[in-house]
Write a structure and sequence with these properties.
Number of strands: 8
Strand content: 25-35%
Shape: globular
CATH topology: Chemotaxis protein chec
GO molecular function: hydrolase activity
Protein name: Chemotaxis protein CheC
Helix content: 40-55%
InterPro entries: CheC, CheC-like_sf, CheZ_family_phosphatases
Largest sheet: 8 strands, antiparallel
Oligomer: single chain
Pfam families: CheC
Organism: Variimorphobacter saccharofermentans
Distance between the termini: 8 Å
Number of domains: 1
């Protein structure tokens, strides 16, 4: 039952994030039903294409009534596609090198998507959640995922992974939300939902 509730939070959060992304790039974005799993840290890099897969990771620390971290990850190709859509790049630039402006746009995309997700979580649970300024990195998935694993590995080894596929008429991309609340915060989320 708790797992079903976490899955529903994932569905609503991902839906709101897709709507926010649609409005941001001023284009219709469709989303498939997200896949929601509670996984151990060591399993996460396999889900996002392997430890050596080059990804964009945007990390937020969470404070308020919930402590922990949230990360939004996409592979570099998916990130490039979203940046091209947002900036109206018609030549469909495929370079894995981003300009300053593109990095800023990418950071903003991550900020909007994660903000929409956190906002729906806060609304559903009636819990105050504030997030830090986003930290963005482009690196191998294993390196990026080592940050929350080191930080939170001492208090728990599980993360809530919400894998969602969204896209426009040109292509679909996978995005990964990884929510890593402290053990205490998991309890607060579940009890706020009456579980």
């Amino acid at each position: 039952m708790q797992y079903d509730v976490l899955r529903e939070i994932g569905n609503i959060g991902a839906g709101n994030a897709t709507t926010a992304l649609s409005q941001m790039i001023n284009a219709k974005i469709d989303m498939k039903v997200p896949n929601v799993e509670l996984l151990e840290f060591k399993e996460l890099s396999d889900i996002v294409g392997g430890a050596e897969n080059l990804v964009v990771g945007i990390l937020f620390t969470l404070e308020g009534q919930i402590d922990g971290m949230m990360m939004f990850m996409m592979d570099v190709d998916a990130s490039r596609h979203l940046v091209n859509l947002l900036l109206g790049n018609t030549d469909e630039n495929t370079s894995s090198e981003f300009t300053e402006m593109e990095l800023s746009a990418l950071n903003e995309i991550g900020n909007i998507i994660a903000g929409a997700y956190l906002s729906s979580l806060a609304t559903l649970t009636n819990i105050v959640i504030t997030s830090s300024v986003p930290y963005m990195a482009i690196d191998m998935a294993g390196a990026i995922l080592s940050v929350p694993a080191i930080e939170f590995g001492k208090i728990g080894d599980k993360a809530l992974l919400i894998e969602t596929e969204f896209g426009d008429e040109i292509r679909e991309v996978n995005g990964y939300f990884i929510l890593i609340p402290t053990i205490n915060s998991y309890g607060k989320i579940l009890s706020s939902l009456g579980l």
